[in-house]
Amino acid sequence: MAYVFALQLSSELRMTVFFDEEGELSSIMYGATSRGLLIPSLIDGDDESGYWIERVGAPIPDFPNASVGEISDSGNRKWLTTPITDRIASEYQPEVTPAVIDHLGHWELLIARMAENWPPSGVYLVDAFCADLTRRDHLDVLLGQLTEAGKECRIGLVAAVSNIDDQFKNLTVDDNGSELARVGSFDGELSAQSWWWRRRPANIPWR
Predict the structure, then answer these.
(1) Do residue 97 and residue 29 come from a single domain?
(2) pTM for this model (two decimals)
C-alpha cells in the first residue's frame, strides 16, 4: 500500500511525505509524518504556479503555519465500511430518506473509526466528533417522524441504530461529559444532553 512506503520514506528523510492512496495527485492527500501519523490534507495549486497546503486535518510539525480543520472524509472511507447503513439503504428504499441514510452512515463511520483506532492518521478532531454526536441527535428526530405506513422501515431502522449504539458504548467511556467539557467543545450543559454526549472515546484521538 502507498501509505506504508510513504511512512518508511518519511522516517528515512525525517520529513513529511504527501501521497494519495491511488498514486495520483489529488486535492485531498495524506501527509505521512516521521512520527508515524497519516494526516489528511487539502492541497491546491498546479504545475505552473506550484502547490500549497490549504488545510490539514491535524497539526503537522513541518508546517506549523498550516490551517487546521476538518477534511472531507471521502479519503477516509478507503479504510472504513458501513455494512449496517448499506443494508438499510438496500432493504428499505424508497421509504428511508437520504437524510436518514446520511446521518446513520456518519454514525456508523464514527464507530468504524474508533474500532480501527482512527485510521489513517490516528487523529480525529474533537469538532468532528461533536458533529457526529449531533448527527445522532438528528437521527432521533428523523426516527420520530416516521409514520405508521413505514412501520416495518421504522423497526428496521431502530434495530440498526440500536446495534450501532451498542458498539459506540463498547468503544467509549461514560465520563459524564467531562472530556468534552474540558476541551470546551460544547456550548451548554452536557448533563442535560442525550447519553452519547456524556461518553468519550476509550482512545482519545484529539490529544
Answers:
(1) no
(2) 0.70
